[in-house]
Specification:
Helix content is 50%, strand content 11%. By secondary structure, the protein is mostly helical. It has a 3-stranded antiparallel β-sheet with strand order 1-2-3, covered by helices on one side. The two termini are 22 Å apart.
């Protein structure tokens, strides 16, 4: 859950653009690379959260309630000090929803457009 790889990618791209003098093409490539990196790290974060949610369910036979999800994130990933865990890599809050019987969940990033239910959303279900 860090941005080091993203920063290195952007730095390499910047140097390449200056040396090749192709700013318009570079900006397009940089934007596409940044979007792909944000999608990859957000998908990784969703997977990590899902693994911890599933493990907690197996051990405790319960999932965190929706109102307590942010606090659960901070407890489950207490070693993190890089970013607000409740936010995806576009700065939008993750959406955590429990089923009516509270035995399954969905966890969603609303993606770059910030709108739930569109094609750029990333969603994981469990357990």
């Amino acid at each position: 859950m860090n941005h080091l790889g993203l920063g290195v990618t952007m730095l390499i791209g910047s140097v390449s653009a200056i040396s090749l003098d192709v700013p318009e093409q570079f900006l397009t490539i940089l934007e596409e690379t940044l979007l792909a990196a944000q999608q990859a790290v957000t998908a990784g974060d969703l997977h990590s959260m899902s693994v911890m949610l599933d493990a907690g369910y197996v051990m405790d036979r319960r999932l965190p309630d929706e109102a307590g999800f942010d606090a659960w994130l901070n407890r489950a990933f207490k070693e993190n000090s890089i970013k607000d865990l409740a936010l995806d890599h576009w700065g939008h809050h993750y959406i955590y929803q429990l089923s009516e019987n509270k035995r399954t969940y969905s966890l969603r990033s609303v993606g770059p457009d910030g709108i739930a239910g569109t094609v750029d959303d990333l969603t994981i279900h469990g357990p």
